[in-house]
Amino acid sequence: MDAFDRFWQWAKKPAESSLTIPAELHRAVMELAREKRWDRAAVNQAAARVPDPDR
């Protein structure tokens, strides 16, 4: 699962879900322009610039 899938799985989770993502991943994606958040390559590139404790 890449960063794009992780972010969107988290973003679309039910309210009662306890699924989390690293704050660094959230920040990297949210810094993108709204339309770029749907671009797999842009999300993965942004995520690659920040440390991810799960990698």
Task: Give structural attributes.
55 residues, mainly alpha, 47% helix
Regions with little confidence, pLDDT below 50 for 5+ residues: none
Determine the strand fraction and express it as a percent band: under 5%
Main pleated-sheet profile: none
- What proportion of the residues is helical, as a percent range? 40-55%
Evaluate the radius of gyration.
11 Å
Number of domains: 1
Mean pLDDT: 93
Shape descriptor: globular
Number of helices: 3
- Decide which structural class fits the backbone: mainly alpha
**Alpha-carbon distance between the two ends:** 11 Å
The succession of helices and strands, N to C, reads: HHH
Q: Give the number of DSSP strands.
A: 0
Task: Give a verbal description of the structure.
This protein is an all-alpha fold. The protein has one domain (3-48). It is 47% helix and 0% strand. The protein is globular and about 30 Å long. The termini are close together.
Break the fold down into its secondary structure elements and pairings.
Layout: H1 3-11, H2 23-30, H3 40-48
What is the structure about, briefly put?
It contains three helices and no strands. By secondary structure, the chain is mainly alpha-helical.
